[in-house]
Every structure is written in C-alpha cells, then in structure tokens.
Specification:
Blueprint lengths: L1 H8 L21 H11 L8 H11 L6 H10 L4 E12 L4 E5 L10 E2 L2 H11 L4 E10 L6 E4 L6 E3 L5 E9 L7 H8 L4 H11 L10 H9 L2 H4 L5 E5 L7 H5 L4 E2 L8 H4 L1 E2 L4 E2 L7 E4 L10 H6 L1 E4 L2 E4 L3 E7 L2 H4 L18 H4 L4 E4 L3
Parallel strand pairs: 3-7, 8-15, 8-16, 9-12, 12-15
Antiparallel strand pairs: 1-2, 1-4, 4-7, 5-6, 10-11, 13-14
Length: about 375
C-alpha cells in the first residue's frame, strides 16, 4: 500500500510512524500541523532529527502563554518577530484601513494595523477568511501614526489618531497550493474501494487495522462528510472520553471547535457592537461540544443557511456538528432505547431534528 501511495502521490505522501512521532503528542499540535512538520523535516524513509523539529516548534510555534513575551519583544524591544499563527483581517470602510487579528493569542483588530504597502503585497493570501501562515509582526509607535495609507493611483494620503499599533510586516501562507481534483480522481482509480477506505482512515490518523469490518470503518468516515459537503449537519452521541470531537478539532484548519460551552450568538454568528462575523461565516463547519449545555436557537440557520441578526444578513456554507455525551447504560441497551432522552428538550422536537442529515452513535 505504501509503495502504491508513493507511486500515485509522490511527494504529497507523509510517512507517519506513531512509534517515532509519539513526542508530537506532548506538543499539543493539530494533526495538519504535525503532518506539515513531518513533510518538512523527514527524508524519503520517514526519518528526521527530533531535536531539529523541536527547535523549529520552539522558535516558530509559540505557546499561548508566551504571547506576553512576544509583545515585549515587539513593543518594548522594537523587534520584528516571525511565527506560525492563524490570522484574519478586517477592512474598515469608514477609515479605509486594514486590521488583522491573531485569535489564538487574543490579539484583536483594535490593537493592530496593516499598512498600505504591506497590504498590497499580501492581500491575495488574506482575502478568503481566516487562514494559517507565517506572520511577521512589528510595532508602529504613535510618532509614526500620521500616515496610515497612500493610494498609489491618486497619491491621496489617509491619517489617523496617534495610537501605537502592532503592525503586520510580512505574511506567507501556511500551505500555498491549489488542489487538482482531476489528478486525485485519476489516482483514486488505482485503488480498490476497500483500499481507498483504508487510505482515508490513515490520512486522518486512524488505524484501519483496528476496525472489525467495513461498516465500522464507514461509520468513522461519516464524520468527514461536513469537511467536503456544504451545510451538512450531524449529531454524534457517545459516552464521555470516546473522542467525538478529536477529529474535528485537529485534522482541518478550516473548521471551528469553540472551547466555550456557553458560546454566545454574537461569537457564533455576528457581533452587532463590534460588527464582526462569527465562526459560522468563516468556517467550513462548526462543532459544538457538550450538546447538553447548548442554549442557542439554531433552527433558522440550519433551515436556510442565512445568518440574520437585525439588519445584518448573509449566506454561509458552514455545517454544524453537535457532539453530546450520553450514559454508557443508554449505549449498551442494544439500540432499542431513545438516544435523545438525556438531551435538552429542544432536541426532542422534530422541527430541529429534521434539519440534521445524519445521526452517528458509537456501536457497543
């Protein structure tokens, strides 16, 4: 199988040997980041220098608790610092300025600026919503704040308040490539259906050899449907600790897994005060864990795919995956019990349930 993968996909193949890459689990990196690192540092036999990888992670993947130290280097030390991070941008119509945010580090639009010359160089990489890449940030002091942008066609200059800002000085996309679907279709023809199922499982870190039959493999792959199909909604129920949200939180950088069980409508859809879009507008899918604590009314969006908050309205493509914990006793009842009996009252109403396309329950 490995030789066939290499023949068909050549340098796209990432050799993942969990016996050698166990140390990655201690780094708390998402799977797509781990695979990128493996591809960057390993040779054709899957061998790499662990110390070299760790040094790269230490240098370019700072932890959240290192953010204050980074700000100190940038603001107080005058350094320009480069690291890998998730970034989003916002364009102010009123001020004709571009701002950026680093959500994983709590850096918001109000404290940042992308100056015109930099924006001209990187705009094509940042116009498609939240993305990962190598950011380089510096500090623009209040003394430098007179001219914020210049229109190269008209020569017009914009001015703003004298406030210090963290500025984006450079950006390089995390994975700068386009996907050739036709190439993948042709390569797929070299594999049988059962082989391709095993390839997909391995690609998302599951061991195909650990499944008893094809049906259980396909049940696992059902979780991938929202990754490729717009506005596909799923509910998954299982006892605690069965890894329901693992796949959604670690495999794709295009989905959102909010960690706050009391997530607000503003964070999810649209913040009226800040005029910022939420997870639904910027993600391929949104996973809401701990379904028992969810208080939001989702029926309108699930039916129409339209976000409507007062005068704000736009269409979105994000699907919803709702993960819920139910007792082991309910799971062990042979499938002849009401799996929703432990869920909130709203999940007993057909008006909500009818808007979901699938229901995944872990087999005994």
């Amino acid at each position: 199988m490995i030789d066939k993968l290499r023949n068909c996909f050549d340098e796209m193949v990432v050799y993942k040997d969990l016996r050698k890459s166990n140390f990655f689990s201690a780094l708390s990196l998402p799977s797509f980041m781990r695979d990128w690192l493996l591809k960057k540092f390993e040779n054709e036999n899957g061998e790499y220098d662990t110390e070299e990888v760790l040094q790269f992670v230490k240098t370019y993947l700072p932890r959240k608790d290192e953010w204050i130290a980074i700000k100190d280097r940038v603001v107080m030390g005058g350094e320009q610092v480069r690291f890998l991070a998730k970034i989003s941008v916002e364009i102010s119509v009123e001020k004709k300025q571009v701002y950026f945010a680093l959500p994983d580090y709590g850096l918001t639009y109000k404290d940042t600026i992308i100056e015109y010359a930099v924006w001209e160089d990187i705009r094509e990489d940042l116009l498609h919503g939240e993305t990962w890449g190598m950011v380089e940030i510096g500090y623009r002091s209040p003394d430098e704040a007179d001219i914020l942008w210049m229109d190269t066609d008209s020569g017009a200059k914009g001015k703003g308040a004298n406030k210090g800002k963290i500025k984006l000085t450079a950006f390089k996309p995390f994975c700068h490539y386009t996907v050739d679907i036709e190439y993948f279709k042709d390569a797929r023809g070299e594999f049988s259906t059962s082989e391709w199922i095993d390839v997909l499982l391995g690609a998302v870190d599951y061991n195909a050899g650990g499944y008893s039959d094809e049906e259980t493999k396909l049940t696992m792959l059902t979780r991938l449907l929202p990754f490729v199909e717009k506005r596909l909604n799923l509910i998954e129920l299982a006892p605690k600790g069965t890894g329901k949200s693992y796949l959604f939180g670690r495999v794709s950088r295009f989905g959102s897994l909010p960690t706050d069980s009391k997530i607000s409508r503003a964070t999810l859809f649209y913040h009226k005060t800040k005029h910022t879009e939420g997870f639904v507008a910027n993600s391929d899918f949104v996973v809401l864990d701990e379904i028992q604590t969810i208080q939001l009314v989702l029926k309108a969006y699930l039916e129409s795919g339209i976000i409507k908050i007062d005068s704000y309205e736009r269409a979105a493509d994000a699907g919803f995956i709702l993960c819920g914990n139910i007792s082991k006793e309910t799971m062990d009842d042979g499938g002849f019990t009401n799996m929703f009996k432990e869920l909130p009252k709203s999940f007993h109403e057909s008006a909500l349930i009818d808007r979901f396309h699938g229901f995944i329950v872990e087999a005994k």
